[in-house]
């Protein structure tokens, strides 16, 4: 087996550090020509009709807008009226052969797809940058190498689950009148068609786990990208179709279903009886709709959340503020893992720089943000661009929600003058405010003044139970407070980071080691990745016979 | 760890023979006094109020009728109006302590519950016999030792799944400016309250997988028995509560919610937000309702099916007919694994006794049934009693569905003159009939005359895809037909038995080796037992920190 797969299988058990796809875009790693070639490959798509095969399509759709102001004008196949039947039929056609190939062979082909994507990682990074608004290095990592690592991780999980049972057995039951012997075979069969519904901000990172989990367990996958972030997934489908063909499988095992406004493709696809697995990243409203309206499918959702930070005390005030500043600034807080609510007791936080009030903490974080962002040319490489008008509008109205403790400011991108770039804002509110109790996606976070750390913890529990969270964070020098928070995190089912002051950030999760989402609170009904994320994507079907009647097949 | 648990963990991977609970009720195994003591213990319940603790209950309910005509008149606690709130609260109260005990300790306690039940296995067998109508030995095995083996099996699966990840890790990421080190802990947390909805025919065998899967993964379990089969699960809950108390846990981690007519308990419980896992055995209609109406819960259902047998040819005609006769006769066909539809080509089946028409095959099976049942005293130990008036009525109307090829006849039980006991009937129909396309639960099976084995296989595929099946069976001497059938079984997702002529029967599945249900066709959305049956019952919640900030806890 592929050495990387072996190491991935070990890492998901040990949770130790592992990576198969180098995260540095440096020419020392990828060669001197890679960056320019990738950019050129990306730009060659401009104005073209993208080369993927979508059965049931007729005509094209061009729906993307670049947060950096580029006009890529790339067209993708659009399903014709009634084209869904054709698409679903074509997607299913290759399933028996793909099933019969078996887990190891499927994993081999999936790894070849990852390698094909890795060979195009600079092109992929530009595609992610200019659809999501992520800065280039963020896009290279989160949208490229980290996404590939999460894909390899899920393939490792799926193989562990599929290999759990022997594929044949000789069952011998001792009896008084001699042994009873039965020979049995056990075959992994796919659940059915998979549907992956992509999002705008992390089109690959959030789609690859579901895509490769379904594919490696034998299910064809229809990829429905966000209309504003088609290219990264179109490249992915193109690479998959090419590898599948080259390896002798039906290329339509992976297809792209791009949609225009009002096409309702996700709803129509998710409720088809043939679609038995749905992976979704997006709004809570549509995620919950899918959970309730597609009972024929196993539905995995990642939705919205209100990620809390409880500030109780620290012996490294500067480290704490720097760490939080980076989290708030990275990709302008447009991550489902960005902290939204910073709970600070009214009598302040005990620190190595003395006691700090809510306003002090906000000011210090604001200062740290400014230090971090420094020159505009450096700032844009951390902030990226605002992904959509909706996020910008939310930011612009944030001052109505409370007291502006740290103001957002616009930054002009030296290379992309049309890009909308903003620093994060911090809004001060009281514990009784409703403003912080639902997700305010983007560069808007709240400093919530509470009566005490006890109330902060109570609010952590209530807001996470009500509105969900992918991450939670606590700063305290009290072992008691840390223990209580840890217990609360278990109770509410949220991943906890404690006293992060160094080069690890609450909004980052490492493949093979950190679980992204738990499935235990409203922010997600699944985790990247655990056994439950893969085990429901296939079934085991057995056959059995007396050994004397005929020989074992194969 | 318990030696049995180690062996069970090995067996579920190898699928080799294993059993931890001896299936023979012989005094050589269980001692000379066990049978009489168990019967006495069973009879001591008569006319009593059963000793279980059900928070929220007030008053009693007495709902059981014995298919053997006994009048046990046992009363169980009945929830008062509004008592659900109290029950749900009490069930949840012990969850944090149970969670903190960890997987190994919970498994230990669950095994102690199995041992407590095993010590009462004769009492349990009588309870199953006199609620389900199973004959004593069937009840002892299916309702006692085999149910305990399925429970141990599921505990083994759950431990494999919970132990899959390390519970702590030191994550070291190499970097140019030194290693980045994070210490992490990973904790298994329960999903929430479990609900187990029992059935009338296999109150323990079909409930134990869900009950112990939920319990060992940290979830409290509310057991809602079928109103006609309360005692076996009441004994189970009583044993669990006693063991939990003795081991220092909240006894209400397992509770009994008996219901009266019209109490709607299953619906009301399944849709409570606190209930996050539902295990159900019963009708397709209610199973599908649960799948669609409890999106907050992971719902595992076992529903109805139309188990097919394709008869193409055999070189052991007598063995084939004897084997089928046993399957049809055992517990009067009141098993979700009993074959319902025997597909025979119009030009007959090639056998070592010459070519046999549908009528010939039916007659031979009828003859085999009569030989098998022989004396009434022997017959009743195979047939058991008819579980309910609905099954009897279905049998009595079966002659309207087609030609009666083998007639059912009543048998009088030498010890229980009021027991309703019937031999199975075989009804002949054409392939175009609708009669065989839905489940006809009980001692009614069909001989379906088809145009050819090809049509038989087509009908296997269509009926299983439409109405589901737990088992499928084929008799053929053609390797080609066997291969095609095996492929069909994979495609429709049904467990296949090939050419069973010896002491293995299609309606029996062995714990640790045979999967019961696949989840891949309408008869069940889950399997006893695979990883998917356990992996969704818990979450993994992590916490992480810099190693220098504080020591690892614990």
3D architecture notes:
Two copies of one chain form a homodimer. With 554 residues, chain A is of the alpha/beta class. The first copy, chain A, has two domains: 22-303 and 527-541, 3-Layer(aba) Sandwich (Aldehyde Dehydrogenase, Chain A, domain 1), CATH 3.40.605.10; 308-498, Aldehyde Dehydrogenase, Chain A, domain 2 (3-Layer(aba) Sandwich), CATH 3.40.309.10. Helices cover 40% and strands 19% of the residues of chain A. Chain A has helices at residues 3-14, 27-30, 34-44, 83-93, 95-118, 121-132, 136-162, 208-216, 231-246, 265-270, 284-293, 317-329, 358-373, 376-383, 389-396, 453-467, 479-492, 531-535, and strands at residues 57-61, 76-79, 168-173, 180-190, 193-197, 221-224, 254-256, 275-281, 298-302, 308-311, 313-314, 341-345, 349-351, 354-356, 403-406, 410-411, 421-422, 425-430, 444-450, 471-475, 495-498, 538-545. In chain A, the strands form six sheets. Chain A has a seven-stranded mixed β-sheet. In chain A, strands 7-6-5-8-9 form a five-stranded parallel β-sheet, sandwiched between helices. In chain A, strands 3-4-22 form a three-stranded antiparallel β-sheet. The longest helix of chain A has 27 residues, at 136-162. The radius of gyration of chain A is 25 Å and the shape is globular. Chain A starts with a helix and ends in a 9-residue tail after the last strand. The relative contact order of chain A is 0.13. Chains A and B meet through α1, β3, β4, α11 and α17 of A and α1, β3, β4, α11 and α17 of B. β22 of chain A pairs parallel with β21 of chain B, so a sheet runs across the interface.
